[in-house]
Structures are given as C-alpha cells and as structure tokens.
C-alpha cells in the first residue's frame, strides 16, 4: 500500500489553505494525503479531521481533510502575511522532511511559500523551497523540473539574472543537471532509458560560433562525453524549435540553459496543470507551479488544478520509486 502524501500548508495568508480544502473535495478518496499546518488557518468550507500521525490519514479521508496540527504564532489574514507565522511555515516543511526521511510518508507536496515573509519574520537564509529542502535532506545538488502531461523541462540555471547565465553555465553544472535528470526519470517516472533534448544557450544554438561559443566550448563537449557513457542525448538544439508537438514527441525531458527558456514553453502549453518537481532529493517532492496569490487569497476563487496535479504526480512518483 502506498504511504500517504504530506501536504505542507505554505504561507497561511496565501491561497494554500483554501487550495488544500479544494483538493480534498476534488480528490475525495482518490489520493491519501494530509495537511500539516494550523487548523485555525483553514477557511472551513469543508470538514477537517485532526490526526496525530501520518498513519491515520487514510482512515480519516472519508470524513474530512486530515490535518496533522502544527500551531502557529499568529492568525491568518488572507493577503496579509504575519511575521509571527514565518517560523511555523519553515518548521512545517522541516517536519514533512522528517516524515519523508523516516519513510512515514511516500512523498511531500508543498503549498506555496512567500520568500520575503519568511525572511522578514524568521530571517530565512534560503532563496526558496528547493534550497531549504536540499539543506534539510543533506544534499548538495538538486534539480528543478517543471512537468505536465505535455512537457517536462529542466533549467540548468534558475533564479539568477540573465547576464550571469553564461558565467554560471559550467561543464560541471550542466553534467550534474543531466545526470540528476536522467536518474530522476528512471527512479521516479519509470522511464528505463530517458531521452533528453538539450538546448543551446544562444539563438540558433550559436550558429556554428557566429552567435556565441558556449555551444562549442561548454555544451557540446559535455554531451559528447555523456553519450560515450550511454546517455541518450540530442543537442545542443536551437531552443525555438524544441517545443512544438513533433519535437516534444522525440524526448522525455528537455534541458534548458536558463529559467525563462524552460518555463515559458511549459507555462504556455499547460499553465494551470504544470507541477514543480525537485529531483536529487532522497524523497519525492512536488509543488504546484504558482505562488501565494495574495491578491485573491480568501476569496474562494483560486484554481486548485495545479495542486491537484501535484498530488497526483507525487503519488505516481512515489509508486514508481517504491
């Protein structure tokens, strides 16, 4: 039997609490999951059931959203983050990681956090969720994948200015990204021989050096070396011809060189159903591909589709891993 999924509450002033309720209402019994957070922060539009351990989640699902209570320091006013809640947000993530590392849950799904609120209220030292999860798990290097039924894409560099990408794009970084992606597709997606398409950095993949030499000096040598080890790699490819339907049919995941090169295609193809996946952790982690949406928090209009898909993908990955 697959272990339940731990859903962290995220920033309580955002749309996380209402999405958790919406996901339970939509999935009723399809997926065993429970929320870790303060039950007083829930809107109360659906029933919830307090549980004392992850093992109680499956039995409680029929009666309401199972909640593993974690008291916070402040109230939850939609749209207005309270610094008193920042420490609780971080502690809930750490608690979920503990449950995953002790194999009490099959996966973690994380609701959105607000980085500034965490920094202001708890002096949070990490750029975001991914880096914090890696630190908690004792992992030096992880990879961010955005996944949907139409596309899986991985950016080699993530949250840095575009002007810094050429310097950050080293052979070591690219090789580690490819290796972690390949291993993640094998372990968590059940793909025995992953096919990876690798984008170039420059327009037309550099056009033989006329528009830049990163493809010649950095990307191509890494791909050639890894092909010699048996990796199924195509590229470096012009990014503007990688994401139409016929091209996507030829690979299982695309490796992009920077944030927007990866995220624009998937958000164009599947804006509401994209899922953020962290590869390289010793457990499964997914997240909806959106933020806290303070502007609509508490209004009951937030779309739960991405969270629902994140929970479904977490279950699928956990089953593949098992």
UniProtKB/TrEMBL annotation:
It comes from the Bacteria. One of its GO terms (biological process) is pyridoxine biosynthetic process. Binds 1 divalent metal cation per subunit. Can use ions such as Zn(2+), Mg(2+) or Co(2+). InterPro entries: PdxA, PdxA_fam. Pathway: Cofactor biosynthesis; pyridoxine 5'-phosphate biosynthesis; pyridoxine 5'-phosphate from D-erythrose 4-phosphate: step 4/5. Its EC number is 1.1.1.262. Coiled coil: none annotated. It catalyses: 4-(phosphooxy)-L-threonine + NAD(+) = 3-amino-2-oxopropyl phosphate + CO2 + NADH. A divalent metal cation binds at residues 159, 204, 259. It is found in: Cytoplasm. Keywords: Cobalt, Cytoplasm, Magnesium, Metal-binding, NAD, NADP, Oxidoreductase, Pyridoxine biosynthesis, Zinc. Catalyzes the NAD(P)-dependent oxidation of 4-(phosphooxy)-L-threonine (HTP) into 2-amino-3-oxo-4-(phosphooxy)butyric acid which spontaneously decarboxylates to form 3-amino-2-oxopropyl phosphate (AHAP). This is 4-hydroxythreonine-4-phosphate dehydrogenase. It comes from Salinihabitans flavidus. The lineage of its organism: Bacteria, Pseudomonadati, Pseudomonadota, Alphaproteobacteria, Rhodobacterales. The gene is pdxA.
